[in-house]
Design a protein that fits this description.
Blueprint (H helix, E strand, L loop, with lengths): L1 E8 L2 H8 L8 E3 L6 E10 L1 H12 L6 E3 L1 E9 L2 E9 L3 H16 L12 E7 L4 H10 L8 E3 L1 E10 L2 E11 L10
Antiparallel strand pairs: 1-3, 1-9, 2-7, 4-8, 5-6, 6-7, 9-10
Bound molecules: adenosine-2'-monophosphate (2AM).
Adenosine-2'-monophosphate binds next to strand 3.
Length: 186
Protein backbone atom coordinates (compact mmCIF):
# COMPACT_ATOMS: atom_id res chain seq x y z
CA UNK A 1 0.00 0.00 0.00
CA UNK A 2 1.08 3.53 -0.67
CA UNK A 3 -0.39 6.81 0.66
CA UNK A 4 -0.79 9.30 -2.18
CA UNK A 5 -1.97 12.81 -2.88
CA UNK A 6 -1.94 15.18 -5.85
CA UNK A 7 -0.59 18.69 -5.33
CA UNK A 8 1.09 21.70 -6.82
CA UNK A 9 4.64 22.25 -5.79
CA UNK A 10 5.38 25.85 -4.77
CA UNK A 11 8.26 28.04 -5.96
CA UNK A 12 11.12 28.20 -3.45
CA UNK A 13 10.78 32.00 -3.06
CA UNK A 14 7.13 31.57 -2.13
CA UNK A 15 7.90 28.88 0.44
CA UNK A 16 10.54 31.13 2.00
CA UNK A 17 8.03 33.94 2.08
CA UNK A 18 5.49 31.71 3.77
CA UNK A 19 7.99 30.82 6.49
CA UNK A 20 8.08 34.57 7.18
CA UNK A 21 4.52 34.30 8.49
CA UNK A 22 5.62 32.16 11.41
CA UNK A 23 4.98 33.73 14.78
CA UNK A 24 4.18 33.06 18.37
CA UNK A 25 1.17 30.77 18.25
CA UNK A 26 0.85 28.45 21.25
CA UNK A 27 0.65 24.79 20.26
CA UNK A 28 1.65 25.40 16.61
CA UNK A 29 4.16 23.12 14.89
CA UNK A 30 5.36 24.96 11.80
CA UNK A 31 5.71 22.98 8.57
CA UNK A 32 9.23 23.00 7.07
CA UNK A 33 9.51 25.07 3.89
CA UNK A 34 10.43 22.01 1.80
CA UNK A 35 7.15 20.28 2.74
CA UNK A 36 4.83 23.12 1.73
CA UNK A 37 2.47 22.41 -1.17
CA UNK A 38 -1.08 23.02 -2.39
CA UNK A 39 -3.13 19.81 -2.31
CA UNK A 40 -5.52 19.20 -5.19
CA UNK A 41 -6.72 15.74 -4.23
CA UNK A 42 -5.98 13.55 -1.24
CA UNK A 43 -6.01 9.94 -2.42
CA UNK A 44 -5.03 8.12 0.74
CA UNK A 45 -3.75 4.54 1.03
CA UNK A 46 -4.15 2.54 -2.15
CA UNK A 47 -2.60 -0.63 -3.53
CA UNK A 48 -0.13 -0.67 -6.41
CA UNK A 49 -2.80 -1.45 -9.05
CA UNK A 50 -4.94 1.51 -8.07
CA UNK A 51 -1.84 3.72 -7.87
CA UNK A 52 -0.98 2.69 -11.43
CA UNK A 53 -4.51 3.47 -12.66
CA UNK A 54 -4.42 6.88 -10.98
CA UNK A 55 -1.04 7.59 -12.53
CA UNK A 56 -2.34 6.66 -16.01
CA UNK A 57 -5.38 8.89 -15.52
CA UNK A 58 -3.32 11.84 -14.29
CA UNK A 59 -1.03 11.48 -17.29
CA UNK A 60 -3.99 12.20 -19.56
CA UNK A 61 -4.91 15.48 -17.88
CA UNK A 62 -4.15 18.08 -20.51
CA UNK A 63 -4.61 21.65 -19.41
CA UNK A 64 -2.88 24.93 -19.96
CA UNK A 65 -0.64 26.49 -17.33
CA UNK A 66 -2.35 29.13 -15.22
CA UNK A 67 -1.56 31.53 -12.40
CA UNK A 68 -2.12 31.14 -8.70
CA UNK A 69 -1.77 33.74 -5.99
CA UNK A 70 -1.40 32.77 -2.35
CA UNK A 71 -3.12 35.30 -0.11
CA UNK A 72 -4.68 35.63 3.32
CA UNK A 73 -4.45 33.19 6.20
CA UNK A 74 -6.95 31.15 8.16
CA UNK A 75 -7.41 28.08 10.29
CA UNK A 76 -9.23 24.75 10.24
CA UNK A 77 -10.87 23.54 13.39
CA UNK A 78 -12.71 20.48 14.55
CA UNK A 79 -14.47 19.90 17.84
CA UNK A 80 -13.67 23.45 18.93
CA UNK A 81 -9.90 23.02 18.55
CA UNK A 82 -7.65 24.51 15.89
CA UNK A 83 -6.03 21.74 13.81
CA UNK A 84 -4.11 23.77 11.24
CA UNK A 85 -3.06 27.24 10.20
CA UNK A 86 -2.93 27.91 6.47
CA UNK A 87 -2.36 30.49 3.78
CA UNK A 88 -5.23 30.79 1.32
CA UNK A 89 -5.49 31.29 -2.41
CA UNK A 90 -7.05 34.25 -4.22
CA UNK A 91 -10.34 33.21 -5.86
CA UNK A 92 -9.40 31.42 -9.06
CA UNK A 93 -11.72 29.89 -11.68
CA UNK A 94 -8.88 28.18 -13.55
CA UNK A 95 -7.80 26.45 -10.35
CA UNK A 96 -11.37 25.38 -9.53
CA UNK A 97 -11.78 23.91 -13.04
CA UNK A 98 -8.45 22.17 -12.86
CA UNK A 99 -9.19 20.65 -9.48
CA UNK A 100 -12.58 19.43 -10.74
CA UNK A 101 -10.81 17.76 -13.65
CA UNK A 102 -8.38 16.00 -11.30
CA UNK A 103 -11.36 14.85 -9.21
CA UNK A 104 -13.09 13.49 -12.32
CA UNK A 105 -10.10 11.48 -13.51
CA UNK A 106 -9.48 10.12 -10.01
CA UNK A 107 -13.06 8.85 -9.89
CA UNK A 108 -12.71 7.34 -13.35
CA UNK A 109 -9.62 5.55 -12.06
CA UNK A 110 -11.82 3.95 -9.42
CA UNK A 111 -11.46 6.21 -6.37
CA UNK A 112 -14.47 7.06 -4.24
CA UNK A 113 -15.65 10.66 -4.72
CA UNK A 114 -14.17 13.26 -2.37
CA UNK A 115 -17.11 14.49 -0.34
CA UNK A 116 -15.42 17.53 1.14
CA UNK A 117 -15.56 20.84 -0.67
CA UNK A 118 -12.25 21.92 -2.22
CA UNK A 119 -10.69 24.61 -0.10
CA UNK A 120 -7.34 25.52 -1.67
CA UNK A 121 -4.73 26.24 0.97
CA UNK A 122 -1.10 25.79 1.94
CA UNK A 123 -0.81 24.35 5.44
CA UNK A 124 1.65 26.40 7.50
CA UNK A 125 1.33 24.73 10.88
CA UNK A 126 -0.41 21.88 12.63
CA UNK A 127 -1.85 22.72 16.02
CA UNK A 128 -2.55 20.86 19.20
CA UNK A 129 -4.54 22.01 22.23
CA UNK A 130 -5.12 25.35 20.58
CA UNK A 131 -8.36 27.27 20.89
CA UNK A 132 -9.55 29.58 18.10
CA UNK A 133 -9.00 32.56 20.42
CA UNK A 134 -5.29 31.76 20.58
CA UNK A 135 -4.84 31.95 16.81
CA UNK A 136 -6.99 35.04 16.34
CA UNK A 137 -4.03 37.48 16.64
CA UNK A 138 -2.08 35.50 14.01
CA UNK A 139 -5.04 35.48 11.62
CA UNK A 140 -5.71 39.19 12.16
CA UNK A 141 -2.06 40.13 11.70
CA UNK A 142 -1.75 38.36 8.34
CA UNK A 143 -5.24 38.84 6.94
CA UNK A 144 -3.83 41.14 4.25
CA UNK A 145 -0.99 38.83 3.23
CA UNK A 146 -0.48 38.65 -0.54
CA UNK A 147 2.32 36.83 -2.32
CA UNK A 148 3.21 37.56 -5.95
CA UNK A 149 1.25 35.31 -8.34
CA UNK A 150 3.13 32.44 -9.94
CA UNK A 151 2.47 30.21 -12.92
CA UNK A 152 1.87 26.51 -12.35
CA UNK A 153 3.42 24.52 -15.15
CA UNK A 154 3.09 21.05 -13.67
CA UNK A 155 1.44 19.05 -10.92
CA UNK A 156 2.80 16.24 -8.81
CA UNK A 157 1.71 12.87 -7.48
CA UNK A 158 3.25 12.67 -4.01
CA UNK A 159 3.59 9.80 -1.62
CA UNK A 160 3.36 10.55 2.06
CA UNK A 161 5.20 8.76 4.82
CA UNK A 162 4.27 9.32 8.41
CA UNK A 163 7.33 9.75 10.57
CA UNK A 164 7.89 10.57 14.20
CA UNK A 165 8.86 14.16 13.41
CA UNK A 166 5.97 14.71 10.97
CA UNK A 167 5.14 13.51 7.47
CA UNK A 168 7.65 13.41 4.66
CA UNK A 169 6.45 13.84 1.10
CA UNK A 170 8.15 12.26 -1.90
CA UNK A 171 7.36 13.47 -5.43
CA UNK A 172 6.66 10.24 -7.31
CA UNK A 173 5.64 11.67 -10.70
CA UNK A 174 5.56 15.19 -12.14
CA UNK A 175 3.02 15.85 -14.90
CA UNK A 176 3.66 18.88 -17.10
CA UNK A 177 0.80 21.15 -18.12
CA UNK A 178 0.31 22.51 -21.60
CA UNK A 179 2.54 19.99 -23.33
CA UNK A 180 0.35 16.96 -23.77
CA UNK A 181 -2.25 16.50 -26.46
CA UNK A 182 -4.60 13.65 -25.69
CA UNK A 183 -6.95 12.01 -28.14
CA UNK A 184 -9.57 11.33 -25.48
CA UNK A 185 -9.88 14.74 -23.87
CA UNK A 186 -13.35 15.78 -22.93
P1 LIG B 1 -3.67 19.53 4.94
O1 LIG B 1 -2.39 20.21 4.55
O2 LIG B 1 -4.83 20.45 4.93
O3 LIG B 1 -3.55 18.72 6.18
C1 LIG B 1 -0.73 15.33 2.56
O4 LIG B 1 -1.10 14.81 3.77
C2 LIG B 1 -1.71 16.35 2.07
O5 LIG B 1 -2.99 15.75 1.94
C3 LIG B 1 -1.86 17.53 3.00
O6 LIG B 1 -1.84 18.72 2.24
C4 LIG B 1 -3.18 17.33 3.67
O7 LIG B 1 -3.95 18.48 3.79
C5 LIG B 1 -3.91 16.44 2.74
N1 LIG B 1 -4.69 15.49 3.50
C6 LIG B 1 -4.24 14.64 4.41
N2 LIG B 1 -5.24 13.87 4.90
C7 LIG B 1 -6.36 14.25 4.26
C8 LIG B 1 -7.71 13.84 4.32
N3 LIG B 1 -8.13 12.86 5.11
N4 LIG B 1 -8.58 14.49 3.52
C9 LIG B 1 -8.19 15.47 2.73
N5 LIG B 1 -6.92 15.91 2.63
C10 LIG B 1 -6.01 15.30 3.39
Amino acid sequence: MIRLFVAFDLPAELRVRLTGLRGQVPGARWIPAESMHLTLRYIGEVNEDVAEDVHDALGRVADDPFEIQVSGVGHFESRGQVRALWAGVTRNEALARFQARIETVCQRAGLAPESRRFHPHVTLARCRDTSPARVAPFVAEHAGFQAPPFQVGSFVLYSSNLGRSGSSYIPEVTYPLGSYVSADQD
